[in-house]
Write a structure and sequence with these properties.
mainly alpha, Peroxidase, domain 1, two-stranded antiparallel ribbon
């Protein structure tokens, strides 16, 4: 039996780790929050479709989120689209929207138990990722405040 909460936490951690470079924590938090809302209100299919429909500026973060969510399906003995086996590790490449959505329709949406499990797992993952983004945001703010304080102190000590 798999610990789904652990899988959600590990996946959320990867989402935050993969969106650190060049992306503001507030932007990551906003996109995760919106994706979570769509998932909760409209379901798994709409949630993934939402991540594919983001603007060019949001695409890098949306791509990381959908890659990790699709990868979670491999933990449920499903094979997500465009998997490549690298040794004994599954590496998910970004699938075209039509391929990924067809995969959802054929392998997840057609089985109510599986659909509800995936929805709950993706929700928990995005909730953890949201908290992770907020924690990163707080760390960034604390670093900025520390730098400002140091610069202010240096300005006071200079003649």
């Amino acid at each position: 039996m798999k610990n789904l909460d652990l899988l959600a936490a590990q996946t959320a951690h990867r989402i935050i780790a993969d969106t650190t470079d060049g992306h503001k924590a507030t932007d990551v938090d906003n996109l995760i929050t919106k994706a979570l809302g769509v998932l909760q209100e409209n379901g798994v299919y709409a949630g993934l479709l939402y991540l594919y429909s983001r603007s060019a500026s949001e695409q890098p973060v949306a791509k990381q989120i959908r890659l990790q969510l699709l990868h979670l399906t491999s933990e449920l003995t499903l094979t997500p689209p465009t998997d490549i086996q690298a040794g004994n590790k599954v590496v998910v490449e970004d699938a075209r929207a039509s391929t990924a959505l067809q995969f959802l329709t054929d392998h997840i949406c057609n089985d109510l138990d599986r659909l509800l499990m995936v929805k709950q797992l993706w929700e928990q993952t995005l909730i953890y990722a949201r908290y992770g983004a907020k924690a990163r945001e707080a760390e960034e703010k604390a670093r900025e405040d520390e730098i400002k304080a140091r610069l202010a102190e240096e300005a006071k000590t200079k003649p």
